[in-house]
Amino acid sequence: xxxxxxxxxxxxxxxxxxxxxxxxxxxxxxxxxxxxxxxxxxxxxxxxxxxxxxxxxxxxxxxxxxxxxxxxxxxxxxxxxxxxxxxxxxxxxxxxxxxxxxxxxxxxxxxxxxxxxxxxxxxxxxxxxxxxxxxxxxxxxxxxxxxxxxxxxxxxxxxxxxxxxxxxxxxxxxxxxxxxxxxxxxxxxxxxxxxxxxxxxxxxxxxxxxxxxxxxxxxxxxxxxxxxxxxxxxxxxxxxxxxxxxxxxxxxxxxxxxxxxxxxxxxxxxxxxxxxxxxxxxxxxxxxxxxxxxxxxxxxxxxxxxxxxxxxxxxxxxxxx
Amino acid sequence: xxxxxxxxxxxxxxxxxxxxxxxxxxxxxxxxxxxxxxxxxxxxxxxxxxxxxxxxxxxxxxxxxxxxxxxxxxxxxxxxxxxxxxxxxxxxxxxxxxxxxxxxxxxxxxxxxxxxxxxxxxxxxxxxxxxxxxxxxxxxxxxxxxxxxxxxxxxxxxxxxxxxxxxxxxxxxxxxxxxxxxxxxxxxxxxxxxxxxxxxxxxxxxxxxxxxxxxxxxxxxxxxxxxxxxxxxxxxxxxxxxxxxxxxxxxxxxxxxxxxxxxxxxxxxxxxxxxxxxxxxxxxxxxxxxxxxxxxxxxxxxxxxxxxxxxxxxxxxxxxxxxxxxxxxxxxxxxxxxxxxxxxxxxxxxxxxxxxxxxxxxxxxxxxxxxxxxxxxxxxxxxxxxxxxxxxxxxxxxxxxxxxxxxxxxxxxxxxxxxxxxxxxxxxxxxxxxxxxxxxxxxxxxxxxx
Amino acid sequence: xxxxxxxxxxxxxxxxxxxxxxxxxxxxxxxxxxxxxxxxxxxxxxxxxxxxxxxxxxxxxxxxxxxxxxxxxxxxxxxxxxxxxxxxxxxxxxxxxxxxxxxxxxxxxxxxxxxxxxxxxxxxxxxxxxxxxxxxxxxxxxxxxxxxxxxxxxxxxxxxxxxxxxxxxxxxxxxxxxxxxxxxxxxxxxxxxxxxxxxxxxxxxxxxxxxxxxxxxxxxxxxxxxxxxxxxxxxxxxxxxxxxxxxxxxxxxxxxxxxxxxxxxxxxxxxxxxxxxxx
Lengths: 321, 450, 279
Hints:
The complex is a heterotrimer. Helices cover 72% and strands 1% of the residues of chain A. By secondary structure, chain A is mostly helical.
């Protein structure tokens, strides 16, 4: 992987050059130009998402089941869907499970990804290239395919994991079913999601690290700073912006994880004890045909995510106002 | 995949047999309108790959010849069928005209008004000869909407050699069966780890409910116009207790195993050869008995090479079939698997769709279904299944077979996986009555559509 | 940096171990694709495809449905990549070069859209595509995909656009270049890594997505590759799963992505961070 500045991210010296432009006298064309520039995005988002989001919001206040889907007039029920959800202990179990899963998975992903990034930074060219290509391979594998392989690896009867464990002397592993208990099910899911997300995180952080100039670190090393000191006082502050966006994205993505859980549930386990928010919405809507409640959970999930990332969103607003 | 080969042989034989007969029956009135239909297309959704290609082609050719219109056959996978039916059926512009759906999914879609009333066609398509339980699953207030397409009930596959080594005779009643498989497990004549006398997945409720049915129990019944789940009724509980005993003493299947590929466990090893062609693999035989749909027999047997490919060849010395016996020695009521078929209420081509139904329920097509190993909807043509041991077992097991409740919300019960959950907990349940009551309370509200 | 020989060797060994671990599922997919099903069904794994054959690939490639799905996927994915890059570039230009009213709300909206759970939107998406006459059309799916990837693509690109000094452009204009030419000559090359990274992201999303496609591509001839692969897995799951064929099919689905990745990888990882750093 090339790290020459010419094709790399804008070299550090030029960074920040973007911000002064706000003070630049606005040319006449500048008034309408930015709005014209974001117009395609707005049109696209409204066309593709406007109706579905509106429908979801409206439906969350209606009684909407299969009967309504097949033409019966839907009745307005106000907040009934929300009320019955909030009083349903199952929703809260799912929420807690999702939050724990999301935080654990996101933190693990960033820790592993960060460690790999630091490792890459310290490596010679060839081993680094090998590591990067293998991460890319994992990232490029279609979800349907990688889930098939993973399910196979943890299969109770001819799975590789049990075979290996038995080989190293863990006799109890023979025929052990990893998916049958909710806890080990979620652990397996967590490992899979971490495996899938680490390449993006590792490569992002690594790219951030390449911008920390080697001279600064060398100077610190000569001054006798230990690895941990260097990490804390020099490297971390410099890559903080990358880290924060990566963490935020991981949190958002891991909270709405769906495909991996759904495919694992189809392979085994008790669905109702392993549901996360994504599969819960799916099961309520497509499964039980209760689209009113499913929409209410979706809206609730959106609010939850916003609440979780409020701090970050606010700092964004501040920066821009 | 390896099921296809023998099917080709079977169906082409059936084609030959019926080729002569098909000439005279095509004199329907629709033939006169051929030209005006030329630009029309009727869409048929088939679920999964159960309908062989030869039958699809037959439908298309016959439909073209009869009506002049084109028949588009599209395969939808079972896993996505409910989603697709939910979105596409209400959409007049894009609805498929005729759809196959699981018999247990029929009540739900019939009750919400997804299908066209075809009561007027019912008698012409076979009337009383059509499988009554399937017809009921597609009827509301006496009107017929979805009719049976094919059935395939489940029966038992055994390892004759292992049964013999364990010194156990083939059982003739349900109680004998329960005891026999427990004994084989404890005998474990080949000293295999995690050996099951009868391999029954913990979440395999479609096979497990046979024990409820066989003891006179029901999954649900209609009381005062409302459906009520009846897992905790006395007869159901009796069946559940027997099932718990099987789970505890006869089956080593994991409690979250479903009904997928149980045949892997009664085959001998799939041998692995090292570089010197010396077998290094261990035996993979772990069960003496399994319960599966009839077509599983294509995947059971000794491993042989055919045309350079590894295929399974049924070995009657080693393998056998029998029907789960009831307490009275008659076949037990097992779950009647199968499909229904219906016309979308929003179809733009209702008349052409009805023509397609005529073809599907014609003697030729019904016999072709039988020839392909699928139980024909019309009882007159059951003989087309043949008379080998698989056909016999299929017909016997179907004779008493039962369907899941015709409640409008049954599809919701299935897709919420609550039955899997309940059955998965049976083995470790301290008090089955409490567990059954808990799940009755969960299932009852789902059975009735709001 | 000076490092002792042993610590370098240790690091290399560690890196290789991690690389092995991460690539293992990919290797396992490849390995299995060459093995016949009976070997794969065994309880003892086979690690090397000795005695394997390309039979599985032959079965898959000769499936006409595969070729058709490949064509649909290519059209949908390439449309998405191009459309997303154009739209997102304009959007990124707006938010990184200009201050305007509503800018903050726009940026926050981009973030919020990513938080939207998609699992409840199926019915509405279907209804919308049906009423627009875009059901089973590659264009319709590409529109949905573009909308799904544009918010994050703008995020990735904004730091890049901000990092290209407008002064350079202006200097070029002073030198007599037109605004467009100045942009093409000066700005565009500097943006290339960012565009590549965003393109890869869009490609990956559009290539692998299947839940939305499942709902709006109902006809057999409109299926994308992941739908075809899923159908393949499910069809064989209802009988004896032919793992070898499933894995050969998976390999073929993954192949274009991997090739695409390897071609652009040099420019990518550096590009990934452009947007993030500015985050």
